[in-house]
Amino acid sequence: MTTDASPASSTNEFLDSLRLGSFEVEETHQKKRVSSVSFFEDLQWYLDDANGGCINWDVELLDGSRFSSPQHAVLLTACRKFVWSRMNDPREGNAIKPSSAVLESIQVKQLASWMVTKNHYDFSTLDADAFDEYAEYCVAEVENFDVDIDNEDEDLDIESGAEENEDDGVVWRHLFRRFSIWARIWGQRSALALAQVKPPSSDPLQGRSAYKLASDIATFVMRRIPPLPDEVAIPIMNEAHRWIGVRADDVIRLHKFYMDTIQGWRIPGKPILSGSIQKWHADQLGTFHFSVEPGSDKPWHPPIRAKVQEELSKHKDGPRLKYTFPTQEVRDLVDKVRGGSILVIHSETGMRIGEVAKLPAGKNSSTGSHNAIEVRRSKTGLNEHFYLLSALEKHAEAPRRDEWLSGSRPVGSEYVPGPFRAVHVLEKLLAPWRERSSNPKATAALIVNTANGAGLPRDDIRINSTSRKSLQKMLQKWIEQCVDLSNLPDKSKLDFDLPLLRPMFRKYIVS
Fold this sequence. Notes:
- The structure is a single chain.
- 42% of the residues lie in helices and 9% in strands.
- It has 17 helices and ten strands.
- By secondary structure, the chain is mainly alpha-helical.
- The radius of gyration is 28 Å and the shape is globular.
- It has helices at 11-17, 73-88, 98-117, 128-143, 169-187, 189-194, 210-224, 230-242, 246-265, 279-286, 327-349, 353-357, 418-429, 431-435, 440-443, 468-482, 501-510; strands at 44-46, 54-56, 276-277, 307-310, 321-324, 373-377, 383-392, 400-410, 448-450, 463-465.
- A three-stranded antiparallel β-sheet has the order 3-5-4. It has a three-stranded antiparallel β-sheet with strand order 6-7-8, covered by helices on one side.
């Protein structure tokens, strides 16, 4: 990044004073500012009003090369000028804000990554045939479950008056995000020409809207999404439910013992740097026994014992023994209970993974019930309906509370729906983490995580609320570690993506 900078100012103020017309002279654009600290030539644009976001132009492309490589100089310049022109000289609609520019740069980089694999060196060759080929590529991404969900918070700029497609899930959003950048490049053609960038010679979408194209194709693709095969679904769901039953009760007790032991053994004001414990702690751990699951005649897990070793230093009374808590073993069990609980909620309610991440913790002071759960009688009074409460991510201008039906039972029945049980498991399991966290978001969140490291947290600063991306990785790892699918006759059935659990739920369960 270029270090020469003028006094701090905002990107929006630069947009008021600097016009795209200066790009007409090719030699001058390299020194053009894009913010108070970044120049056009920089590989990272730090925009002042982008809420901490950064446009990184030095990314790896599909062919394995870097976008900053000399052979991509023309395309990189075109993409930079496109994003800058959308902020500075919009030809359709209002100028985008710096925060939106960060998100839009992701779209244009995704397109550029595909372009280099098809020998498109600038925008001039992006015609209708090229778009059809790109659309086929995007559909293949969906059908191969190679869907990027990392940027679902992106402002999709949906057309005025259009209604969101109920069948989209990941599919519609993915396609619309990919298609809309073509329409925007075409809409900016006059500004791009002024900036000495070769624009498309004709409308690649041929007058069709990106919204309508994405909607039509998503509906077609959704019809072709197969159900999760029984030989995959049954082992996964059976294992998930095992981890929210007897196993969860045991791990909650073990985890609480560990956290209470560590908290009691720490020196006030000093972080704990190891899992060292006293002998009586090790003896107490030795009395912990795992339960026997229904249908079995032995404990579901072997005993966990403290690690014992002689200290190297010499003592006048002879060698001393050092006792260490088996932190990693306990953390592994905590992760498995947490992962099983999250999977039950996600797969049996139709909640988006980001909505699962936003489930609240704690009890309602007025009703005494859990903040994430509400139980109501049916209209006939014969059944009880269980609802999970979280923040709706879609169909709302701002996140708002909504509810998801998670189970039902006859009045008087003792049946507990899986998602209801899973919420209570997560509440108890992660309570020691929330109690020790100084992060308000973490203390209010049902699902929390350590900021770094794979062990159990010893300092409150390492405990944070989680995100959809973290949960996504967590669940993929859980399936790999907990479910044996090695005997499947068709290994291709293993190639599925968790974001599609929700479309499958809607298609094969709700409907």
